[in-house]
Design goal:
Elements (H helix, E strand, L loop, with lengths): L2 E4 L6 H10 L2 E4 L1 H19 L24 H12 L3 E4 L2 H15 L8 H13 L1 E3 L2 E3 L8 H8 L7 E4 L2 E4 H8 L10 H6 L3 H31 L9 H5 L4 H14 L17 H4 L1 H23 L7 E2 L5 E2 L7 H29 L21 H17 L21 H32 L11 H11 L11 H13 L2 H9 L5
Parallel strand pairs: 1-2
Antiparallel strand pairs: 3-5, 4-6, 6-7, 8-9
Helix pairs in contact: 1-4, 1-9, 3-6, 4-5, 4-9, 9-11, 9-13, 9-14, 9-16, 11-13, 13-14, 14-15, 14-16, 15-16, 16-18, 17-19
Amino acid sequence: MQNIILTGNTLTLEDLVEVARHGATVELSEEARQNVITSRAIVEDIVAKDKVVYGITTGFGEFSKVKISQEDCAQLQENLIRSHACGYGPYFTTDIVRAIMLTRANALSKGYSGVRPQTLETLIAMLNKGVHPLVPEKGSLGASGDLAPLSHMVLPMLGLGEAEYQGVHMSGKEAMDKAGIPIIKLDAKEGLALINGTQVLTSTGALAVYDAIGLIKLSDITAALSVEALRGITDAYDPRIHVIRNQRGQMVTAKNMLKLLEGSTYATRQGELRVQDAYSLRCVPQVHGASKDTILYVKEKVELELNAVTDNPIVTREGDIISGGNFHGEPMAVVFDFLGIGAAEIGGISERRLERLINPQLNDLPAFLTKDGGLSSGFMITQYAAAALVSENKILAHPASVDSIPSSANQEDIVSMGTIAARTARDIIDNVKRVLTTELMAACQAIDFRANDGFVLGKGTQPAYDVIRRDVKFMERDNDIEMYKELDKITALIDSREILTAVEKAVELEY
């Protein structure tokens, strides 16, 4: 099992996935530990000298005007967590919770937050031993950090709230006891340091980006199979077309399509059967390419944020405490809105290819890809379901970041709604996955109707077809199957990345 060393500066998206989804353990680097110790000493000096500093010896938000006595500084931090833990709705999945814990620990390890080393080690121990706080999805404005959900993350550290341990939901205290992790009592600034950051929105969006990278590669594979099923024209992917536009994603996609279709006799050349294809086949490089560029841009922003300090106030190396606005989620809110739009477009073009596969007015295949039309509906309603997901994505793709509602008596008068942006991007990507699932299944069905003509699949499409046909067979008639179960099998192949892995052993795909 991989072990990730936290320095505060080197966490990658791939590291995040290893910890969140594959159980990699986490360890604090010695340099980071020393930075944390130095930062903590500054906070303790402020408390000892009874200086007035926001969040340490004052209340929060509008209550920053209220001075807190030295003896109440610790109670202030616990009160903060208890009152701010007011999230609502379904809980984040375990992988997102683990990502949240990891990114918060990484931010604290930079040594600008003023927590004690033992507090940070408690969070790391929970991650390593599998104590996962139950964190409701809803309730964050994405400014002043993800206050409500991060407070739910902290509750079990104090023996409060609820957590999952070894797959069972229980009280936070019971989970900590079972894992052998002592609960803690927060000291000055620690509550604020634990919850004043963008880690919920960043972690949710980061995992969505990772999934989007896999889906954008899969979308090229899916499109290539549809090109073969519809005997599409490969001239549209000629590099001479794309280099003169000079859009990176477009050129990469065209290259991917030619690699995938290399050696295919299903695919045709310009003028062989028709002069040109419909946009959903001909413009794959332009549409998929735009989404690739979107996803790459968002990934770059995410990896900056994974190693960012998003606290307020900041404990500087020089010993100053500075109030600022690094907790504001706007830099990530706008990019996650962008991610959702880019992903939605992949679902949109996929559904249009699906329509071309099943509509007898648009191809020379049996209507709705069934031998038994009339008695069997075949793939007719799969397009309905895909169209519903695409339409839902159009609603979800409305940007969250353009909205704001003032909070804390107008002290916090412009907020990001970045956590909503991240959650909706995640949901869009999940919907797109099912649309691509449906197109994959339909394309393989259509290809099988042409199998007796002796055609050969492409170098990259053959491995994809083989993996799918291992688990999902040609559908003779409706009474042979329950459609959702067949679709679920392909969705599982996407989730496990088996299709993508098989193809990338044959051809290298870019994104």
